[in-house]
Each structure stands twice: as structure tokens, then as C-alpha cells.
Amino acid sequence: MALEKFIVVGGHRLKGEVTVSGSKNAALPILAATLLAEGSCSLGNIPRLRDVDVLARILQTLGVSVERDPLGRIATKVTSEENSVAPYELVSTMRASFCVLGPLLAKRGFARVSLPGGCALGDRPVDLHLKGLRALGAEITIEHGYVVARAKKLRGANIYLGGQSGSSVLGTANVMMAAALAEGQTVIEHAACEPEVEDLANFLKEMGASIEGAGSHRIHIRGVRRLEGCTYDVIPDRIEAATLLMAAAITGGEVTIRNIEPTHLEAVFDKFREAGIVLGRNCRVVTIAMQGRPKEIEVSTLPYPGFPTDLQAPMMALMSKGEGASVFTDGIYPDRLSHVAELKRMGARILRVNNTCVVIGGEKLQGAPVMSSDLRAGAALVLAGLAAEGETHVRRIYHIDRGYENFEGKLRSLGAVIKRVEDETPEKPPTV
What we know:
This protein is an alpha/beta fold. It folds into two domains: 4-21 and 236-422, Alpha-beta prism (UDP-n-acetylglucosamine1-carboxyvinyl-transferase, Chain), CATH 3.65.10; 24-222, Enolpyruvate transferase domain (UDP-n-acetylglucosamine1-carboxyvinyl-transferase, Chain, Alpha-beta prism). Helices cover 29% and strands 27% of the residues. The protein contains 14 helices and 28 strands. The strands form eight sheets. Strands 26-27-1-28 form a four-stranded mixed beta sheet, with helices on one face. The protein has a four-stranded mixed beta sheet with strand order 2-19-21-20. A four-stranded mixed beta sheet has the order 5-6-4-18. Strand 24 (349-353) and strand 25 form a beta hairpin. The longest helix is centred in the middle third of the chain and has 13 residues, at 238-250. It starts with a strand and ends in a 10-residue tail after the last strand.
């Protein structure tokens, strides 16, 4: 498959209306949870993304039929439980696919899932996943790069899932899915309370699970004997919604965002207020009419309900056009700063010390060839390109395709000048 890139021509003010897609980070564990179901599931608001396609392929290797109808709904049904091996070739391409471990173990008593490996955000171990499943009674070994888990019967337990960087979203999801079919009661302490975890719990409850407290740091789960297939719609993607608002802000635009859940973005909206960015809110619709440049702010990323690490890079791009000096500290993924060097190539003034960056706003951005290192870094570079003079060529946009459905199409609908073309520039070998 040929590599592609975006060519972005800056200087065009965004204006109009756009609709947010379903949440990637909610859709992936919910798709994995269909392994638990007796009968068919029908899932709506599932975005068309590379990550969704990868997880669908993994589910198909595990005996699940996965079909998307013309209206965009995905139907799943477990047709065979013979294979419980999630192969390296697929799991290694997407970390979230590791969340098939819990459902496989709970439903089939055995799972062999490849370790997901490293990523551009630094080391993200799976020790909390394994700790939680062991507490439920699983025997777990690491064999030739695979996690091998066995359990004749899982039993409820009190489990503490706090880690060095706070709660684990996927760890909470894995344990919650396994506990849904365990015997007795499970209490997860220091659970992740992100909206995507709560959405997974709501899906499991629709299938017949008994879960209380999702959305808080303490989740109570009473195991049931079976879970039935159901119909469910995934929540909107809060990260895409905020990214589109930032795209409007960086261009001085006037945009209405539909299918947004404002309560999921209170920390982001608080920073917008500090920056002098005025938003209008009406149920699931948010409007922005940008006036002038944003004022300097301080941003520290934290687990939900704090400022999301996934929005650190796009917000940094926005503040490169702001007033004064803004300070960014990523307390979740200290290595998540690869976009800094690329933004500086475009003229941004950014001073970095360890995991803290000072962005000195007000500089003119200039179009340049830049390269995405991860999903959110790629989005940040596109935003910078929208506000830059001339053309910006954003390479490795397969990262962006992992998490933003039809990103360029939505931006074009708002007046952006952006196109996807084949990238004929040869890849450079890694520096030794």
C-alpha cells in the first residue's frame, strides 16, 4: 500500500457546521466485549477508522462475524470459539486490541494474546491488566512474547488498579469485562473514570451485566452467568470534537460542532475560557466564533476529568498562535512531545525541559514538510498547517487515519484547503 500525505494550504478561515463521529476509544473495547455475548450485537455510531478495521480482523480470527451495513451499523456474532489466539501480526499494530484478553478468558477459559509492544508515546506496560486478572483467579504466564491466561472459573475479588501514572483505562476495561462473568462480586478500586469506561459499562449492562459505579474510581461488579446480544450506540468522540474546535480557533473561524457531549470536555472548555475563547453550548451542539488571539495559559495533562493527554499536541499548536508564553506539562506520557520539533520546523517558538514545554506565541507559522509520529501529533501538524503561510506537507498520515474519521473531508466542508495525495518522498532510514 502506497504511503499518503496531506497537503494543507494555510490562511483560510474555517466556517460552517460539522458532525462529530463516534468515539474511537469507546468503540474498541465495546467491540472486544462482543466476545462475551450470546447472540448478535448491533452497534451504532462506530467510526470508520483503521483501528476499528484492525480490531474487526482480530475478532474475525477469534470466530466472530463482523459486518457493517449501508447505514454504518456494525453487526457481530460469535460463530466459533475454537480459536483463542490473538496474533502478534495484528495486536502489534494497535495497543487497544490487547483488551480482547479479558473477554476471551472469561468466556472461553483460555486466551493467548500477543504483548502489544512499545509505541511512540513511550513504555506503557500491561502489568495492571495482568494484576487484575490474576486477582480474579487466572493463571498467567508470558511465553514467547504472548500472554497466556487460563482459568476454569473466575471469582470476584477486591482489586486495586492504581499505577505510576494513575488509573489504566484499558486495564480497567479488561478487568471489568472479565469480572462481568466471574462468580461473585468484584470491586475495582482506583478504576479509570473516563467516559469511555462508563460507555463500556453501559454496553455490558445492556447485555445483562450487573455493574455500579462506572465513571467513578470505585466500580462494583456482580458476576452473571451469561450475557445476551443487544443493540447499542457509542458515545461521540470528545477528542475529535475538541480538535475540530481548536482547528476553528487557530484559523479565527466560526464553526458549529454537532453530536458532541459537552460534559465530557469540561477541563478543555475551562482552558478555552482562560484563553479568552468564547463558546456557545446548547445540549449536544457547541459553537465557536473566534475573536483575536488566545491568551497565554498553563496546561497539565491528567487522567479524566483532567485535561486529556490526547489534546496536548493540538492545544500546543493552537497556542503557538497565542499571546504571551503558555506552559505545557504532560504528566501522563512524558515522552509525548515528538511534535515539538516538527512545530518548530514551521516557525513555532517552543522551549523544552524534560516533559515541560514553554510555547511563546505570536510567531508567524510557515508551511513546511513535516512528519506525524503518532495520531495526535499528526492532528496538531494539520492544525498548524491551517494557520501557516503557504503549503504544509504532513507525512505518515496513516497515524491520523487511526483516530479521525474523514478528517480532511470534515475540514474541507468548513472551508479548509487540504488534500490527500500519494507520498512519493522516500522514507529515510533510522538514525543510528
